[in-house]
Amino acid sequence: MGKTVQRRLVRKRNLEITLSKVEPHPTPKAYLEQYTIPANVAAEILYIAAYVNDDIIGKNVVDLGCGTGRLAIGAALLGAKETVGIDIDKTAVKLAFENAISLGVKDKTSWVVADIDAIHGAFDTVIQNPPFGVQKRKADRRFLQKSLEIACRIYSFHKGESNKELLKRLKGHETKVVPVQPSAFLKNFIEKRGGKIRAVYAMVMTIRYMFKFHKKRKHEFLVNLYVIERKGKL
Ligand SMILES: C[S@@+](CC[C@H](N)C(=O)[O-])C[C@H]1O[C@@H](n2cnc3c(N)ncnc32)[C@H](O)[C@@H]1O
């Protein structure tokens, strides 16, 4: 058996506990929207990607805007063949590298300090939690565009549309996913670039107080995970 493909099922709770050890950014910058994905949300979506859709195990995975590496490290822990994390911020990438060492996936991960424009090639899967464009309008669109250029399967977080009822239903249940309709704009954007939306899941994300302009101790808001397939060959 030359191939080291991991077929062992990793328990979701264990993955979450391990990912909670990935250090968040020590000095996050608002303009880069450098908040770290909660460990339970990361574990939930990596689980869907790995065990529901078979898009992680034995695959080449890229994490665009990897921050300190939670999603990339999670993919490596679940058995990705190779995972590349890329982020424009040197401090974040340095920490991602250190996190990968301490969590035992140094040899299965590569880390790049660069704008996402620098990455080219063909990969199996992109997992990304890009800036939502709250600070810099349309920031997430460049990530979507790039992911559709380099991968066949894409898992991409975007800001959810405001829906008080859904938010109330999901608050306190960070790992609950509810299928929802895509936004008309993103659907059009994705399809124009050769993508097909397979599913959109609404989830709640909780961000603790980080920046001076945050008014509350914690902020719970809706996010949508887009699962996208790219039509045609790369
Ligand atoms: C919302 S954070 C997510 C971090 C990490 N993926 C996570 O989920 O914990 C977005 C990340 O994108 C990075 N970023 C923003 N613009 C970028 C660009 N043009 N190229 C590469 N990375 C970028 C930021 O530095 C930040 O780490």
Structural descriptors:
about 230 residues; eight-stranded mixed sheet; Rossmann fold; alpha/beta; binds S-adenosylmethionine; 8 strands; single chain
Write up this protein:
The protein is of the alpha/beta class and 234 residues long. It has a single domain, classed as 3-Layer(aba) Sandwich (Rossmann fold), CATH 3.40.50.150. Helices cover 30% and strands 26% of the residues. The chain has seven helices and eight strands. Strands 3-2-1-4-5-8-7-6 form an eight-stranded mixed sheet, with helices on both faces. Helix 1 crosses helix 2 and helix 2 packs across helix 3. The protein is globular, with a radius of gyration of 17 Å. The protein starts with 11 loop residues before the first helix and ends with a strand. The model has no long low-confidence stretch (mean pLDDT 91). The structure holds S-adenosylmethionine (SAM). The site of S-adenosylmethionine has 21 residues, from helix 3 and strand 2.
